[in-house]
Amino acid sequence: MRKRFLLFALGLIWAATAWSQPQTRIRLLPDEEKYFTVGLLGGFYFLQDEVFQELYGKGAPFFGTEMTLRFPIRDPHGLDVAAGARILSKKGRTSYTEESLSLRLTDFFLSLRYSYDTGRYALFFGPGVEYVLYKETYDPAFPIVSSTGSQAGLHFTAGAYVHLTSGLSLKGYMKYGLVKTEKPGFRVNLGGTEWGLGILYRFYL
User: Fold this and answer.
1) What is the SS3 assignment for 137?
2) What one-character-per-residue DSSP string does 69-126 give?
3) Residue 205 to residue 119: CA distance in whole angstroms
4) Which residues have a Cβ under 8 Å from the Cβ of 14 and sit 6 or more positions away?
5) 82 and 120 Cβ atoms separated by less than 8 Å
6) Eight-class DSSP state of 165
7) For residue 82, which of 143, 164, 159 has the smallest C-alpha distance?
8) pLDDT band at residue 137, thresholds of 50, 70 and 90?
9) Non-local CB neighbours of 76 within 8 Å, separated by 6+ positions
């Protein structure tokens, strides 16, 4: 009985000592590392303009790509510079005559983001700029075939990474953009809310 009590007491002392020692975080990424990522994005874009919603619906799927360069400031804080592009295509119809339409948006973006990276996951947010190329193609019965142009705008994005390995991560994010055109006959807001997922591969520099 005394032997069992002694073993139990020694076990408690060992557990207390182990718990009192500093706990180490499980990390998949090295500390204070600058890295570069490339990845693929996909998701759904919700158009903000009411006229576009009537013609094309409230949203459309998109696909894109992104590159990010992360500069560590002080672990776990960092600064991300991200650039990329996405393409959105959607078919629609006019409200009254039911004639066919199609819209294509090609969006190039550049973001500057604060990031908090624990080595297992990361959070980020920040502003950026957009440059959108648009093309709206009309029914053959229309007097003109299409309307094309480009417009710059602003966005704000926020999201998170989950690191699967030291080189592979999943990304989920939200981006709100404001891109208003001023072209005669095409005065609409091309901005909206973008919800997306991505998979990224990391290279250490």
Assistant:
1) strand
2) EEEEEETTEEEEEEEEEEEEEEEEE-TTT--EEEEEEEEEEEEEEEEEE-SSEEEEEE
3) 16
4) none
5) no
6) S
7) 159
8) confident
9) 116, 117, 118, 119
What pTM was estimated for this model as a whole?
A: 0.79
Longest dimension (CA), the chain: 100
Spell out the residues 6+ positions from residue 83 whose beta carbon is closer than 8 angstroms to its own.
Answer: 66, 67, 68, 108, 109, 110, 111
Checking if the pLDDT of 159 tops 60, the result is: yes
Nearest alpha-carbon partner for 106 in 74, 135, 80: 135
- What element of type H or E holds 52? helix 50-56
**Structure confidence at residue 24 as a pLDDT band (50, 70, 90):** very low
CA distance 52 to 147: 14
Helix or strand holding residue 59 (H, E): strand 59-74
Which among 153, 155, 82 has a CA at the least distance from the CA of 112? Answer: 82
